[in-house]
Amino acid sequence: MTDPPPAPPLSSSSSAPVLRTPLSPVEMASALAASSGLPPWRAFLALFPYPPRLLFVPLLLSNLLVVRFIVRWLLPFVASKLVAASAIRISSASIGNPQQDTIDMAMKGDVSNAGPIHAVIRFNAPVKLAYEDPVSGETVVVGEADGMPCIDARGGRAELDAKVHVRITDPAAFGVFSRTMVQQTDFELVLVADDITVLVFGVVPIHHVTMRKTLAMKGLDGLRDIKILNAVATQGTTDYIRLSTTCEMRNPSDLTIAMGDVALDLFHEDLHRVGSVEMRGLVLQPGLNVIECSAKYAPGTPDQARSGRKLLGRYVTGEASDVRIRGSLAHSTPFIYLAPALASLNVAAVLPGETRKMIRRTQLVIDPFRLATLQSATRLELSNPMQAPVSILWMKGRVVCRGEVIGHLDEDLAAKNAVVVVPPQGTVTTGTMGMRLRVSSAAVAAIMAAGFAGGGGGGASPPTGGLTLFDVDVESTLGCRVGDYSVELDYRQEGVPVGLFG
């Protein structure tokens, strides 16, 4: 064997080895293509034999898949987890401008635990509004909110001030949700967003982030606290008597809700519908609300008319009555997605009576010819506390003194063409009417005792002229018209002063 040739001597001009940077595969292929005249791709294949060539494509694909996994799945997954870990507390909210298939919503609150870094959450698509079905556990979407603003989170916190326009996608489901909102003390609203972009430090985007947040809110608790402050008859048509009423309604929630025009049914004795209550442009703010309402007295069936007669009789005599206010699916609202909420209302209330009396005084007229036949001539001074005219067509009744009946009154004023019309807030004295006297020892004793005790101690105004004899109680039934509405009133008034006139 021959020895290998000796290494060439180092050049005298080179004092240190020269370090060369390794060429990349692309540079090597480019150099080979330049020296051999081959196309670049042929030169690349010539440099790498067949087996290593097979590894290049999987390596390239794996790099692409890793990058895609990080960008498309890992980062959105991490961002979604951070968004899910945050908490939203609603301090106030409102539902307004109800239309046939849209409403406006506003929410104010704060976001906590939003992560340690500055991030801006941008909503790229409408946010779905939903609730969780308590039976199936499924998330039921009721609408979609457009215009959700960006949330700028700094230091783990952010302010929420959103005003959105909601398109109701499922009116029936929204009806179930609205009923829960009105009836329950607490309810939950679920926000679902399928396309969110999170801008890390406000610059680096992370796309395809999702969000599901459950907001806990206070409900209206059935609007159980309703108080009728007053009720005054203002109009009478051939179909109904209209009353102007003022109500107090307490909204225990933190939600302001506008329901548009609302019509509720008015029930007496729990069974009989005697009319309705109308509220135009109803808006309930959190806390105490004073609402101006319009009520219609309009019983339909004979049973309703009998119950309504009791209610109206108690009203005109100054006695309060227990009533119920109920909603209806058919006519409480023109918006079908609010109908279940209003139909669920069943609220007890008290209708106050009219405290101003209708009979100011009674006048006995001295007429010897009538006394000879046990008759007495009498006149009534009538007052109308209503804001609609009252026409007295006939009256029947009895006069009671200290528990003893002393006379009966039966006068058909319409037949005599002597209808008494009392103007709104006015006073009128009737013409002379006949009263049949009841002469008995008990009646005479009661009159004498009342006369010696002194008159004018009742609740009505004492006479301004003539001699006051004693006080009586009047129990009567009046056939009258309130405006153009014909009705029979059962009226009782205690302590009516009786005056003596010639």
Please name the defining characteristics of this protein.
single chain; 502 residues; alpha+beta; Immunoglobulin-like; 4 domains; 16-stranded mixed β-sheet; 7-stranded mixed beta barrel
Give a brief rundown of this model.
The chain has 502 residues and is of the alpha+beta class. The protein folds into four domains: 25-68, no CATH class; 88-219, Immunoglobulin-like, CATH 2.60.40; 222-351, Immunoglobulin-like; 359-501, Immunoglobulin-like. It has eight helices and 25 strands.
Describe the structure.
The relative contact order is 0.09. About 3% of the residues have low confidence. It is rod-shaped and about 145 Å long. It contains eight helices and 25 strands. The strands form two sheets. The protein has a 16-stranded mixed beta sheet that branches. Strands 17-18-23-20-19-24-25 form a seven-stranded mixed beta barrel. Helix content is 21%, strand content 47%. It holds the Pfam family DUF3712.
Query: What name does CATH use for the topology of the largest domain?
Result: Immunoglobulin-like
Count up the domains: 4
Give the distance, in angstroms, between the N- and C-terminal Cα atoms.
170 Å
| Helical/strand content category | alpha+beta
Morphology call: rod-shaped
Low-confidence stretches: 10-14, 456-464
State which percent range the strand residues make up: over 45%
CATH architecture of the largest domain: Sandwich
Q: Can you give the helix content as a percent range?
A: 10-25%
Give the radius of gyration.
Answer: 44 Å
Largest beta-sheet details: 16 strands, mixed
Average pLDDT metric: 83
Number of separate helices: 8
Q: Kindly provide the name of the CATH class of the largest domain.
A: Mainly Beta
What is the number of E strands? 25
